[in-house]
Each structure stands twice: as structure tokens, then as C-alpha cells.
Give the backbone structure.
Amino acid sequence: MQPEFRNWSRRHCCAPAAWAHPSTDDEIVALVKAANDSGRTVKVVGAGHSFSAIAMTDGVLVSLDRMDRVVSVDVQRGLVRVQAGMRLRDFNRALAEHGLSLPIVGSIAEQSLGGLVATGTHGSSLRHGNLATLIVAMRLVSGTGEVVELPEGDPRLLGARVNLGALGIVTEVTLRVESMFAVAEESVPMGFEAALAAFPAFIRDHEYAKLWWLPHTDAALLFRGDRVTEPSNISAVQRWIDEHIVNAWVFPAVLWLGNKFPSLIPPLNRVTGAVYFQRRRTVGPPASVLGLAMPPRHFEAEWAVPLAHGAEALRRVRDLAEGLRVNFILEARVVRGDDNWLSPAYGRDTIQIGTYITNPADRAAFFAGAEAIFADYGGRAHWGKENTLSRAEAERLYPRFADFRDLVGVMDPRGTLRNAVLQRLLD
Ligand SMILES: Cc1cc2nc3c(=O)[nH]c(=O)nc-3n(C[C@H](O)[C@H](O)[C@H](O)COP(=O)(O)OP(=O)(O)OC[C@H]3O[C@@H](n4cnc5c(N)ncnc54)[C@H](O)[C@@H]3O)c2cc1C
């Protein structure tokens, strides 16, 4: 029997008909052609860190864990070619060895390059787009088993950067990177309304900025980060404690207690806010300073709305959370607008509001209520997180969705790369 597959949050699970672990493009071509011949579907999985069912399949599940090498590094031009199965943490390490860094990173580095590109993974900065905007070239194996090169300037890259895994199995990407630099990030505690009032200046005046709020409290935390020339003050011991004690044992215990006795969630959140929402200043490489210690298992949905509606949407989601029992932070991050067809930041600077929870009793109500609120502002889904978007809604929200569907029709005419999520969106 084939082993089943579960995503990181363990909410989604599937029983693939078969697993494949190719190590070359030729092996991928062969397995896609074999799937076409036998009428099976193929789905590639990265690290399985998407919260939605986007990586689930009952066809052949392809892991690119054996395609995890840096292919070439051009320090002069700041271009790095890498196999798509490489994990971001390994990529960050390899870049640092060459004195290079990504200009923007998300909260964690467990994802594969192929996966984070496919879903529009982002950090928080109005000076940088999501990570897919760093892609200048790409190679993929299409749904018919052809190797397709998308070189720099190829117009199809606009559809291929955020691709949901629908166009092909991406085997290599070339990314634009920068010389290594240090970031100083400062966290500033304040009340919720004060944080909303200060946020526009934070995102305008600082290269990196984000906002956290703890439901059932007035505790918010604003972060601002800028490039500096100071030495790192990151403590390896503190990092170890955060990762192996606080996030591995203390937070999970607090969350477990709240899940078991939801009436305890407000006081537990108040204690967490008092202990954790403190002024701190951390200096070091972007991947270490802007990235977080791996958080405890939880569920996420996240929506991208135009910047101008951010404060109103946040207030409404706060009111929704106050009527429920929500035991995780609400997070607001910003992303510079881009021109990639399926990017949540397509055509507009964007605030991406993340709704997170572990309390199983209120998860569905929280996500459904938030989705309805964000819909009022033309909210676009984060493709790697829980959402119920239909094809009709996607066509309305993403102006180039029809072009994306056309490109899917060319790259995967038989629907060999489809799964249930892609059927819901594309068929
Ligand atoms: C704890 C945690 C923190 C997170 N933090 C952030 C954050 O800060 N910012 C943010 O934006 N997101 C964040 N995410 C979401 C995460 O970045 C995305 O869901 C990302 O897609 C996961 O990458 P993955 O390699 O696990 O992809 P998977 O979940 O395995 O796959 C996602 C999609 O990508 C496709 N795919 C994977 N590899 C390829 C390939 N080689 N070719 C074509 N398609 C491919 C899959 O078929 C699937 O459709 C977080 C997730 C977790 C669990």
C-alpha cells in the first residue's frame, strides 16, 4: 500500500495512487508521459506546508526532494539558478556562502522553491514583491511531458511565476538576489488602535514592517526593519530556546489548554501578550531576523486587500474574533504590487491579513466570517492557505485569470496536473 500524504497542519490528507521521487528532468518527462498513457493525474508536492488542499491528489504524487541543488551562481549579476525541490533554508545557507541573500523572506524557510513560487509566498515590505517576483527564468515539464524553458523576458513568465502547480512541474528557477546585508528589526508594543494609526508610517518609512494583534486583548506589536551596518546580535542560545522549548512545548501547551477549555483563551492570550509582546531589537542576516522560529501546528487563511481598506478590514476581523475564541495572532503584512497574473498583489500594493487559529470549535466560523469580510474589499486568497474560491470568483478577482486558464490549456491540455482544488478553480 502507498503511504498516505498529510499537509503540515494535518487538516488535509490524501491517498496517492503512487509516489515518485525523480532526480532528473528525463525521469519527470517519463513519468508524466506514463501518467498520460494510463489516464492518471500527477501532482507535485514541495514541503507540504500549504494549509489548503492544493497539494493533495489521488493520482501520482511527485516529490522533488532529490532535485535540491544550486545549479549556478552569477555573483556579478546577482542571479542564481536552483533546482525547484531545494528547501528555502538550504537555499538561504547556500546564498550566504556566496555572500548573497534574498531581499525578502517569509516567516519560515521550510518550503521548497517550487512550492513557495507556486502559491505566491511573501514577506512584508512595500519595497519588495512576493518571492515569485524574484524569478527571472524557469524550466518546467508540461502536462504533456515536454520540457519548456521560460527564459528572461518570456511573456509566459507572467502566468508562470504564481502558477498553483497547474502549468507543469517546475524543475529549475533563476532568482534575482542581492549582496548579503544586515537588517535591524525592532518590535514596538502598543494598543490596537494606536498600532492601526502608526502602521501607514511604518510601512512607508521602513523597508520591512508588519503588525500583530492578539485577539481578546488590546495588545498589538508593530515591527519595523531596515538595513544597517552593525554586527549581528542574534543569540544562538535564544534561538534554540525559542525553537526547542517555547515553540515546541510552551506555546503548544497553552494552545492545547485553550482548545480543551475555550473560555480560558482570553486570559491565556492576555498572559501571552504580557510575556511576548515586548520591545526588542534584533540585528543579523535577513533570513534570521525576518524569519521566525517554527511555530506550533495551527490553521491559516489569509486574504490580500487593497492597502486603503486595510484598517477597516482589520477592525471588522477584530470584531469577528471577539465574538469567537481565537487563540493565535492576527497578522497584517504588506506586499508591493506586481504584474504576475495570479499574484494576490496583481496590479496593486496590498495588505495581506492572516487569520490563524488552533481552537477547533471556532475554526470554521472564523475562516468563513473572515472570508466574507474580505470579499467586501475584493480580497484575493493566499493560494497556500484555506479558502473556498470558485472559478467565477477567481475570474472576478484576478483580471488575468482567463489568460492563465488559456496558458493552462496550452501547457496541460488534458488536465494531467489537476487535483480537486484545481478542478474547482479551472474547470
Ligand atoms: C508555519 C508556516 C508558515 C508560513 N509562513 C508563510 C509566510 O510567511 N508567507 C507566506 O506567504 N506563506 C507562508 N506559508 C505558506 C507557504 O509558504 C506556502 O503554502 C508554500 O506554498 C509552501 O511551500 P511547499 O514547498 O510546502 O509547497 P506545497 O504545499 O508542497 O505545494 C504547494 C503548491 O505548489 C505546487 N508545487 C510545489 N512544488 C512545485 C514544483 N516544483 N512545480 C510546480 N508546482 C509545485 C504544489 O503542486 C501545490 O500546488 C507558511 C506555511 C506554514 C506551514
Observations:
- Residues 8, 43-50, 54-55, 64, 84, 106-108, 111-112, 114-116, 118-119, 121-122, 164-165, 169-170, 295, 382, 384 surround flavin-adenine dinucleotide (CB under 6 Å).
- The chain has a mean pLDDT of 97.
